[in-house]
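Morning, I've got a small favour to ask if you have a moment. I owe you a coffee for this, so here goes:
>
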Amino acid sequence: MGKPMMLQEDDAERIESLKERLGARTKIDVVRSALDLLERDAERAERVTRWRKAAKAVAKESRAVLREFRPNSRLRRVD
């Protein structure tokens, strides 16, 4: 059995408007589309947080490796 939702009039109008604009068959299709977008946004934010954490963890070693390669850089030897 479905779960009843209490919507304010403004929200119901927004959903109806989006239903027409998106060509969705039902109001729940609009809500599901919005939930999909919110999930993707949340997953992306979590992924960015993990990337930042990983980058911070390897930053010191990465700088050290780059320093080792600098003396052999071809950019300084270009005539």
Summary: The chain has a mean pLDDT of 89. The two ends are 76 Å apart (CA to CA). The chain has two helices and no strands.
